[in-house]
Amino acid sequence: MTSRTEGREMTIDAAVLERHGVTRDEYRRIVELMGREPYLTELGMFSVMWSEHCSYKSSRVHLKTLPTDGERVLQGPGENAGAVDVGDGLAAVFKIESHNHPSFIEPYQGAATGVGGIIRDIFTMGARPVALLDSLRFGAIDRPPTRRLVKGVVAGIGGYGNSIGIPTVGGEVMFDESYGGNPLVNVFCLGVARHDAIVKGVASGVGNPVYYVGAKTGRDGIHGATMASAEFDEKSAEKRPAVQVGDPFMEKLLLEACLEVMKTDAVVGVQDMGAAGLTCATSETGSRGGVGVEIDVTLVPQRETGMTPYEIMLSESQERMLLIVRRGREAEVERIFEKWDLHAVRIGEVTADGMLRVRAGGEVVAEMPNRALTDEAPVYRRPMREPAGHDERRRIPSDALGVVLPPQDVFLQLLASPTVASKRWVFEQYDHMVRTNTIAAAGAAAGVIRLKGTRRALAMSVDGNGRFCLLDPRHGAALAVAEAARNVACSGATPIAATNCLNFGNPERPEIMWQFAEAVAGIGEACRALGTPITGGNVSLYNETDGQSVLPTPVIGIVGLLEDASAVRTRVFPAAGLDVVLFGENLGELGGSEYLKTMHRLVRGMPPALDLARERALQALVVRLIGEGRLASAHDCAEGGLAVTLAECCFESGGVGAAVDVPAAPSDGGVDTVIATLFGESASRVVAAVAPGDVAAVLEAATAAGVPARRIGRTGGDRIVIAVDGARAIDCALGEAETRWATSLAHWMEGRAA
Amino acid sequence: MKARVFVTLKPSVFDPQGHTIAEALHSLGYGAVADVRQGKYFELDLDVESREAAEKLAAEVSDRVLANPVIESFRVELS
Amino acid sequence: MTFAVVVFPGSNCDHDAYHAIKHVLGEDAVFVWHKETSLHGADVVLLPGGFSHGDYLRTGAIARFSPVMRAVEDAARAGTPVLGICNGFQVLLECGLLPGAMLRNRDLKFHCEFVHVRVERTDTPFTRAAREGQVLRLPIAHGDGNYWAPPETLDALERGGQVVFRYATAAGEVTDEANPNGSVHGIAGICNEARNVVGLMPHPERACETAVGSDDGLVVLRSVLGTMAGDGALEAASR
Known about the structure:
The structure holds three protein chains of three kinds.
Chain A: E1 2-5, E2 8-11, H1 14-19, H2 24-34, H3 40-49, H4 52-55, H5 60-63, E3 73-75, E4 82-87, E5 90-98, H6 100-105, H7 107-123, E6 128-138, H8 144-164, E7 168-175, E8 184-194, E9 209-214, H9 234-239, H10 248-263, E10 267-272, H11 277-289, E11 292-296, H12 309-314, E12 320-325, H13 330-339, E13 345-351, E14 355-360, E15 363-369, H14 370-373, H15 390-393, H16 407-416, H17 424-427, E16 438-440, E17 447-450, E18 457-463, H18 466-471, H19 473-489, E19 494-503, H20 510-530, E20 534-540, E21 544-545, E22 548-549, E23 553-562, E24 579-583, H21 594-600, H22 612-627, E25 633-636, H23 641-650, E26 658-662, H24 673-679, E27 686-690, H25 692-705, E28 709-715, E29 719-724, E30 727-733, H26 734-749
Helix pairs in contact in A: 7-8, 7-10, 8-10, 10-13, 19-20, 19-22, 22-25
Chain B: E1 2-9, H1 16-27, E2 39-45, H2 51-66, E3 72-78
Antiparallel strand pairs in B: 1-2, 1-3
Chain C: E1 2-7, H1 14-25, E2 28-33, E3 44-47, H2 68-77, E4 82-85, H3 87-94, E5 101-103, E6 111-119, E7 135-142, E8 146-148, H4 151-159, E9 163-168, E10 187-191, E11 197-200, H5 218-223, H6 231-237
Parallel strand pairs in C: 1-2, 1-3, 3-4, 4-11
Antiparallel strand pairs in C: 5-8, 6-7, 6-9, 9-10, 10-11
């Protein structure tokens, strides 16, 4: 086997294949599709396009089962982002993406470029990005390496998002040892566009010029597979940056210029260059359009000297866009970019033969059918097997629990635990107000932004729970969907669509593949039941170190529509003298709970039961009641259970405490019933504040909707008092509890225990 | 011709970054590092004929753009 | 009354200012691109917040050389009210229309939160509708808001009554805890000697509607209504 790269002979042998992550079978397939052996540059292009990240080869068969249709869906999976109708001729364009591995290597830049990447996916569709959310998972916070990651990632997200002027309006941050060597950095972005302004990543029109605009191409992000043949030595290694460095200023210019260009109809297709850079952008736009694309790499703006076609095609330099321009409109496009001090350069054109043809000056250095890189990528049906010990884990070993602390002590400890504690330390580093659309932000459960020029608002939330998914992937994933949708409903918005980021370990291990398939099934079930089709998303596999995988962590992003922005609600009790109503049933389920993990260092039991019909009814009820103005606040019950939820309703209220009395829940696995009642994480529950005059109507509406509901107490006073069957279990000063909760993360980050 | 420009905060200006770095070094056991001031370093590639011209150009560019004279001073080195 | 909202590459809060002026205040606003050399006869000039030129080199350091700044400097000299918000304030400092400089926040972190500022002087075009000592709840969002000036400059500012806003508690006390970034003397905003150019780090344009958290910022924009170019000089004369 021989190949040519700039005239030098390079043998493709087993070592070369391995360095490219291409299996023997895949290589055979490549040869079949091309009708010959590939040149090294071509092998490189296949290796990135057929990588897990770009081709979804291990996950496609499962992802195909997800619900993607709905009357509001304008664009489902397959494009740069999904789009749904939100009324007034407007569309919400959104997606979630991961940047896990780079964030471990270089936390700041890894997170920053993750933000940059997802933002590009949105504006490449012609939508102005207006909100960001991020879902972050780190290892044990008491370890300095974890803190270093947290600081870097948060600074990177802030550094990029703030600079480009898009508000980060919410998210989640969780800590668990399993993420120690593999942090999860999932970033969600949402933009708004008029329906008719949406531009797709499709190349069309034979003879239309292909343009490149943005940063110059360098050797960023080319993995160890770079083969500059005999030139590959120590000096070459020095030339290659391992990590991509983001430039939010460049991206801001690109964003404004591209949106301006897309307003004219001079472009027929736009795609950003992200993973697999130029190779991906050209082959995907060509494939979608059923056309060919021919480019000349010598025309590609380069910021380093001596770059080979291999390097140019595989580079993942940031902030670059590919545009398919209408022939004859080139001057117009170039002029708009010049205004923003950007140079749009013609690098090729659309052809009729369906081939991706790469020239270096006069010589063809790579050539293959577009579809060979995209649609013809391998699809694997990997073996799956339920993990050993799976059943064992689903029982809570009540005899092995050890000392059970008094509920009040547990309460204060949970409030100070890193996953539960206030994340203000994090989100104050993000500009959550720029663009003056944010009407409910960080700290509220869902981020809500108004749509100026309409009466509406969009609510969004990202949620996941790796522990639930470890114990029961199908169920845990469904619970994640339910929780995200419930958060959105608690702001008063109807959930209308979803996106997912699936973070798992090595799919070549049957146990991991089983977790993945089960999780996808769970997501599908829940999305169907709740009416939130999946419009796109991301899969991140191989999140493991030394055979230790992260907890299987599907993260779900849900978008909701609030018809009347002025009706928005947050989690905070707005005043004293209101009644507290609990919707849903307190079943005292402790499986996979924060309580078990924080107090007993256990991840055991069954995740809470989920009745999707009940969940749907609850969400619809909450949305309706908020719309009618009958709920003064609403907060869903999640980590830490009812006690933590109630406390969170009192925090940041300006000193409004609460006193409630709840019936004891059934005991779970022999654990003390009071503990189970207070800290159980049963699904489908919401705590709301209701004006006394509205309580009767609220309870009646709940009964009619088949949703359990009961008045459990009153807001007011300066204490948090929770009784179970009349016996006080928690009675503490609001100030003390709030201080613990509010200052804990800062203490943890400074290396002090809370 | 190559010029190097070192831009540093004036002594009277509090340097929170330098201070934080010094604290971090102390907590790592480098008590002998009494103080740290953080500055900026620029490498200029100048298209001029003489060393005098290079010094003059570098100084002008530094004074006008690279340094903020209210809070920073600079020093030019020619290679 | 027409406001010129200058837009530099990297400005982000230009649209927020435009919205506040046009849709909340009900006045006219035009965007002026940084390459333009005329302010279109606007009555008020506003330099908005954001990250002009990515904040590379120093905040505002490159924007100050934009062609439009000539026109801004001319307008300032002629007494036109000029308001610099956040990055806009930084640009005014870099070009010398206001004295002093900005440093990184003392805790090295970016801060996005609501703070309180006390209005120290009501004899500027942007505070004449406020009361002396009035406390405004305004958002900040910056990583480099630590105002510094050499001792003589600081002295002159204080003696000349050029400190217009100071960070304070909700009760109006200027304390260290209330200071989010370490600015000397708790300075949140200042004006020039002629009193027509005002710069402040907090964002009044983000606090013009209760829907987004506070409308205390309206008083800053409302103050300038009715002020014509040249009044700034009159203010200084009658001080």
